[in-house]
Amino acid sequence: CLSMHSTDPLNGLIMKIMNDIKKGIQYAFQTSNNMTLAMSGSGHTAMECAVFNIVEPGESVLVAINGIWGERVAEIAERMGAKVHTLFKTPGGHFTNAEIEQALAKHKPVLFFLTHGESSAGLVHPMDGVGDICHKYNCLLLVDSVASLGAAPILMDQQNIDILYTGSQKALNAPPGTAPVSFSERACHKMFNRKTKPVSYLLDMTHLSNYWGNDGKPERIYHHTGPVSGFFALRESLAIIAEMGLENSWSHHTEIAEYLWKGLEDLGLKLFIKDKDLRLPSVTTIAIPEGYDWKELLAYIMKHHRIEFTGGLGPSVGMVLRIGLMGYNCNKANAAMVLAALEDALKQCRKSKA
Ligand code: PMP
Question: Which stretches make up the Aminotransferase class V domain (predicted)?
Fold first, then answer.
C-alpha cells in the first residue's frame, strides 16, 4: 500500500513497479529521457500536465487544429492564460512543414502542439522535420499520441519531440486511468526555470518528478495516492508491447487496417482519408454514405450485431463513421465481423429516394 503522510517515503514494491513503467515507456516512446513517467489520470491529464508545466500565463502557444484534440489543447492553454494562436484545417487535413514554419516565425510561440493520431478524423500526421523546425524557432514540440502509440511509428528522440504523451487504454490495452508522458532535456529546462508556479498542484512536475524518482533526490515522498492497480496493469501492457516489439505491433495494426480498408471499399464505401499513408491504422474513418442516416446505421449495428461503431467527434460529427481496431481488438476476425455488420446495415438502412 502507499504511505499516508506527506513526509512518508514511498513503499518499495510500488517504487519498483513505477521504475519498470518508466523503462517500458522509454521503450514504447523510443526515448532515453530521464523525465519519463505515467500520470494518474486519463490522456487529458497528460495533456493538461504538459501545457500547465511548460507554459506560463501570457506566453504564446501555437496549436494545430485539424480535429477535436487541437481544439481541446487550445482551450486548455486559453484557460491557463496563454496567448493562443491556431493553425487550422478541417478534419482530415494536415499541415505541411512550410505552413508550420511560417506560423512559428509569425507567432514565436514557446510551445507548438500537434496530434500524431487524430482519432476524430482518422489521420496520422507526418512528423518528420517538425521537431527541427520548432527548435530553429526556439519552440518546444508537444505531440499527442493517445490514439497512435503502438499502432503507427513515432520515435520521440529521433523526431526531436520535446513532450510526448499517450493513454493506457488504446493500443496499449490497459484499463483507462494512467497516461504515459515524457519530457526532453529542453522541456525540463523550460519547466523547471519558471517564474510562476504551474496552476495545478496535482500536476506540478516538481512534485511528480520526485514522486517518480526522476529528480535525483534520495527520497521519494508522498504527493498523491497513485492508481496502484492501474500502474500494475500499465506495467504489464508495456511489458507485452516490449515482448512483441514495436515494429511488429506497427506492422500488425497496418496489416489488419489494410484488410479492413479493402473490405470497406469492396462494399462501395469511401474512406474519409484518401491518402493511404495518412490513414491512422487504429481508427478508420468512413465518409457517411449517401442515402443513409448515420445515426440509424450505428443504432442498427448496435441492435442487430452488438457492435459499437461511433460517428464523428467534435468537428467531424456528421462527416464520418469511425471504427476502432487497436491492441487486443485488432485482429482479422473482428475486422471481418465489422464488415459483415456494415454490409447488413447498408442493405437494411437505405432511405427510399421518394
Ligand atoms: N487524444 C486523442 C488523440 C484521443 O483519441 C483521446 C481519447 N479518445 C484523447 C486525447 C483523450 O484521452 P482520454 O479520453 O484518455 O482522456
Answer: 10-330
Closest of 159, 185, 192 to residue 35, by C-alpha: 185
Which is the closest atom of ligand 1 to the Cα of 313?
Answer: 8
Compute the distance between CA of residue 78 and CA of residue 278 in angstroms, rounded to an integer: 29
pTM of the model: 0.96
Distance (Å) from CA 6 to ligand 1 centroid: 32
| Residue 87 backbone dihedrals phi, psi, to 5 degrees | -110, 130
186 is in an annotated binding site: no
Of 44, 66, 172, the residue with max ligand 1 atoms within 8 A of its CB, to mutate for a pocket test, comes to 44
Q: What range does the domain containing 284 cover? A: 246-348
For residue range 283-322, what is the model confidence (pLDDT) as tens digits?
A: 999 999 999 999 999 999 999 999 999 999 999 999 999 9
Q: Is residue 4 part of a domain?
A: no
CATH number for position 341: 3.90.1150.10
Which residues of the chain fall below pLDDT 70? Answer: 1-10, 352-354
Per-residue pLDDT tens digits for 60-73: 999 999 999 999 99
CA of 164 to the centre of ligand 1 (A): 13
- Tell whether ligand 1 has an atom less than 6 A from the beta carbon of residue 167: yes
